[in-house]
Amino acid sequence: MADDLNGNATPVGSSSEGRGGMTVEQCEKMIQKSFRTPTVKFLMEHLEKSGCSIGSKFIKAVDCDKRISGGYVRGEGVVVCSNHLQIQDEVNQVVIHELIHAYDDCRAENLDWTNCAHHACSEIRAGHLSGDCHYKRELLRGHMKLRGHEQDCVRRRVMQSVTANPYCSEAAAKDAMEAVWDVCYNDTKPFDRAP
Ligand SMILES: [Zn+2]
Questions:
Q1: Is 150 designated active site?
Q2: Which residue among 14, 55, 68, 116 is the one 20 to 30 A from 141 at the CA level?
Q3: Distance, CA 101 to ligand 1 centroid (Å)?
C-alpha cells in the first residue's frame, strides 16, 4: 500500500482538519518557502545523508479528493493538499510530517506500510516530531485541554491515519499503536530530541 495515489492504495496521510483552501499555485509557492525553514532543511539533509536525497519535484501541491492534508507515497514522493490548507504554517507542518515518513521509509529497509504497527510507528514519530500537536495548533482546532494534550493529540491523529489504512481495522490500529507507543514516541531520529 502507499504506492499509488490514484489507485486503491491509500497514501500515508496526515489527517485533515482543514477549512477552506488555496490554489495549487499558491500552495507550490508555500512549499518552496517551507524549504527555507530550519526543520525542513534539516530533514532534507538527513534524507540525503541516508542515501535518499530528494529532488525539487519530490513534493508537489495537488487538489485532493480525500479529506487529508497531505500524503507520502513510496517511490513517488509527497503531496500537499492545497485545497485543504490555508496558511504557510499548515504547509510547513504537512511537509515536515510527510518528510518524517519519507525518512522512516529510507532508513528502514523492511518498512511495510501494510503492517499496522509499522504504519503506527511512523505516524507516532511524524505526529510527535512535526509539531502537529503543538498546543497553539491544538487550541486553533478547538481542543482546549492542556494537561497531557500533546500525547492525546498524537494518539488521535495516529488513529485517524492508521484506520484509513485498508489493512488496519480500528481495533488493529489501536493495538498496534499501544504496542509500539513507547519505543516510537521516544525514537526522535534524526533529531536529538523532539524539536
Ligand atoms: Zn502521517
A1: no
A2: 116
A3: 7
